[in-house]
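The protein record quoted in full:
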Amino acid sequence: MRKINFDIDALRSFSLGMELGSFAKAADRLGRSTSAVSAQMKKLEEQAGQRILTKAGRGMVLTDAGEVLLSYARRILDLNDEATMALRGLALEGWIRLGLQEDFGEHLLPEILGRFARSHPGVRIEARISRNAELLGQVQSSQLDLALAWHSGGGTAHMETMGMHPLHWIGRSGQVPRDWSRRTRGDAEPVPLVALEAPCLMRSLATEALDRAGIPWRLVFTSPSLGGVWAAVTAGLGVTVRTSLGLPSGLRISRPEECGLPRLPSLGLAIYRNQAEPAAACRRLQDIIRQGIDDMTSPAAQRMSVPGRVMMTWEH
């Protein structure tokens, strides 16, 4: 049987189009015309020998074959980009001190360390997991070169924002959420809060939102570590406030309309540096962190939770 070599550029257009939810947006991002991307999709279908997209109303959805190809396309592109980075980074050497907020220690750290180590074997990384205030202080005192942390409006002189992430009320999976808005005069039970020890930005945002809504609360459990918070919520002691990033299994997001709790704001995420112009190795690591965050927050990651129902458009 003749071996088929899938076109890398076509796979990149396919993957990016699925990530953005629009092949027109992918064409703009890649500097191509929409018709050129359409031709690439036809080429992929010819190479695959079957349809990878099919019409659904006014949009397109993945076929079973398209879902399989998308999974492999992402892996092929990751290896291609990793190989490119590895060749460029062979001469890089040095030592990078990286700090990560606790939300990213379990899920993001192994991925970025593995990817960076394979691409830049001559660079050593010292990674620290800590809380926001400690990370920012260590960047400012030059104890860390880079730190990924939540942005509360302050920060350091050299930082790059990574987008906004909504905060959520989080409780134990399988636990019927109580509607705290339906209170009687005799019902004085406060909302049980699980939180990190002060100072904690998310704890402050949660209590401020409850106070504005006139809903009483009490701290039922505090912990110096995020792991302790997750354990207490999993045990059903109360609810906490976090983003969806790094949310453990066994916990669920409770929508404000179902639990009667106030809506919460979004929180910025940023990479903080101790220098305006970091060394080449730091810039490479920052790029890998940015890609890791993009992968965690990609709209496609949410849409792909329902196979074969990824709605696509060719419109802007």
